[in-house]
Amino acid sequence: MEILRIEYQNINVFKEGLIVDFTTKDRVFEYSPVTKIYNTIHTNNVICLVGINASGKSVALRLMNAAMQVILENKGLNELNFAPGIIKDGTILTIDFYVNENFYRLTSEIKIENLNNRLEYYFNDEKIYNKSKSEIKNRKELFDYSKKDPIYHRTDFEQNKLSLLKKYDSIISIITKDFYRPLLINFLSETNHNMYMIPGKAKMEIINLFDDSIKELTKKEYSINVTFKNNSKYISDDFGEDLLSSGTIRGGNLLYYVKLVLNAGGILVIDELENHMNKRLIEIIIDLFEDKDINKKGATLLFSTHYVEILETIDRKDNIYLMLRDDDYVSRAVRYADKVSRNDVKKSDILLSNYINGTSPKYENVEKLREFMCKSMSEGESSGEE
Fold it and tell me: For residue 59, what pLDDT is reported?
């Protein structure tokens, strides 16, 4: 099973909706880091959301993860971690995916009800559409279901079947229940909580990438034992914060899950990939998903970042989404390939220059900060503050 496209309409923050297309738009070569679906249809193995602070990256990742949990894990709306205030009464979620040589589209209308001062989400209506792969002659036809009737419609279900289906559960399990669904792991909550969580004896090939001084690391139920190469031994009764650097903790956790996802051909969702790690380590992680000798099962890395320099590691343009916030404080997700056609200019130079409005802090805000700091220093000198 492959996720092809996720779309939200009628949601807060993203006035024009949110669309993330996993399929390729640019030309595909033999060495391209993509997974072939059928004929000329491929999906990108790495997808990046990049933008300045408060541009909507984390919200978008949580929305993407929630949609995939519906398809891949059969989770109900009441189990999803939507960002507060994002889903509206009447939000439309559309998910395109491929399984068993067929293309499918799930369209769901999400409603909200207030139960004892608590907002509850439920599916008001859902439709499932289908195309056999023989119906797809080119990429333009892939997401066009305008001439198709739904093969399943939630409102058409007999009452006794609906009674067995809870209102916050999707009807998509009718399609997915008999097929293998890729492993989905999200690294979202770990963005602000950095604790070493991998049980048992750690693989030194992973740990030594972040701290070469460690000889052995073992996490037990209530402690972490660390032996360094100078033979000094320590025991920590917490999550390793007093013995391990922040980068070693995050990197050890992260690469453990990278290995799981690569082995399973799954999807790994990471918010702020650069947290606690230098640029070269980030490049190594991205390379693992782009290397066809390692990523043999078509695993996908979906991540966000503030640092545009990371984009030079990514070979393609159609797997980068610019998260922009307009003057009216509305966020937009724009595909980099739709804005820039040239390959001879560094992506980071284009974004840092604010050539695409919203990819760098506003000049006037920078100047206001400088003026404020200059004035503050002058006032401090006159008052004798240090």
Answer: 93
